[in-house]
Amino acid sequence: MTAAIPALTPDPTPRVAIVTGAARGIGAATARRLAADGYAVAVVDLLEEQAVETAETIAAEGGRAIGIGADVSDAAAVAAAVERVASELGAPTILVNNAGILRDNLLFKMSETDWDAVMDVHLRGAFLMTRAVQAHQVDAGWGRIVNLSSTSALGNRGQANYAAAKAGMQGFTKTLAIELGRYGVTANAVAPGFIETDMTKATAERIGVGFDDFVAAMVKEIPVARSGRPEDVAAAVSYFCSEDAGFVSGQVLYVAGGPRA
Ligand code: NAD
Predict the structure, then answer these.
(1) Which of 133, 191, 214, 256 might form a disulfide with 261, Cβ 3.0–4.6 angstroms?
(2) In the chain, which residues have pLDDT < 70?
(3) What is the spatial distance between Cα 61 and Cα 256, in angstroms, rounded to a whole number?
(4) What's the CATH fold of domain 16-193+229-255?
(5) 162 an active-site residue?
(6) What pLDDT does residue 1 have?
């Protein structure tokens, strides 16, 4: 008689994900989604108090999460945050580089400070976070990196800095895919179109339009005839983080309700 094959038991140690800029908006929805997918999640944000609140919401929903205050463009803060995640949740093998800011202006009015601030958060931030986390991914022989790009990467009036940073995120992603693939790590980018968050609310305010009118005007240009929700983006991130996406790397997925919004 042959021995019975033991039943497969689920892995008792959940994978650990870091989501930056996760205190609110797309990052918070992504952190909640990844927690629902079964990962332990570190909610990292400049806004420490709100990051902790988001982590508490996830815990109340039955997930495992911690909130950490850190500026992703600060190398020492990044190192400390990743170390804290490793010691409190376990080695992080999933990284979502979502933290972002806008400093929109037409080129002739754009200050050096506004150029640098956008490059620092999106590009330097993603670089520092990824460099710190890849050590854990390479050790584990498995990893997932998802970077937030944008339809603005294709060019957008008033966003020379942001468009350059978001196009840069795509080149960064493809290079990570090439360098880290042999260690079991995939890297992909999600490029949202118009999503209703504090970021787009601030844009409406800056140009002096009520948010409802702003959304209505944007929706006219969106083929699926609705605006995007943070959860729409979180679902795409969730796919790239999944086991099923292991042969998908270096890709950019536009989540825009159409070819571009
Ligand atoms: P949001 O402003 O609501 O959230 C961004 C979060 O990033 C905030 O919680 C903020 O505190 C945090 N953050 C900013 N600078 C940081 C830093 N230096 N270190 C750590 N955290 C920092 O914006 P959102 O709309 O949720 O955007 C999330 C991402 O999606 C951004 O990368 C954004 O560029 C991108 N995106 C958004 C849209 C959209 O329509 N909302 C479209 C395309 C791409």
Answers:
(1) 256
(2) 1-12, 261
(3) 28
(4) Rossmann fold (3.40.50)
(5) yes
(6) 47
Find the Cα–Cα–Cα–Cα dihedral 147, 153, 154, 156, rounded to 10°: 140
* Paired tokens of 215: 């959304």
**Is residue 252 helix, strand or coil?**
strand
Best of 49, 78, 122, 199 for a ligand 1 pocket test (most atoms within 8 Å of beta carbon): 199
Q: What pLDDT shows up at residue 125?
A: 99
**Cα 88 to ligand 1 centroid, rounded to whole Å:** 25
Candidates 39, 162, 183, 239; catalytic one: 162
Residue 13 pLDDT: 77
Q: Whose CA is nearest to atom 44 of ligand 1?
A: 150
* pLDDT tens readout for residues 43-102: 999 999 999 999 999 999 999 999 999 999 999 999 999 999 999 999 999 999 999 999
Residue 35, H or E segment: helix 25-36
User: Residues spanned by CATH 3.40.50.720 within the chain?
Assistant: 16-193+229-255
Mutation test of ligand 1: which of 26, 253, 255 has the most ligand atoms closer than 8 Å to its C-beta? 26
96: CB partners within 8 A, 6+ apart: 17, 18, 19, 20, 22, 27, 30, 34, 145, 146, 147, 148, 237, 241
* Spatial CA neighbour of 143 closest among 178, 81, 95, 98: 95
Token code pair at residue 147? 């970077």
What are the structure tokens assigned to 118, written together?
């956008």
Nearest CA, atom 17, ligand 1 = 71
- For residue 149, give the ligand 1 atom closest to its CA: 44
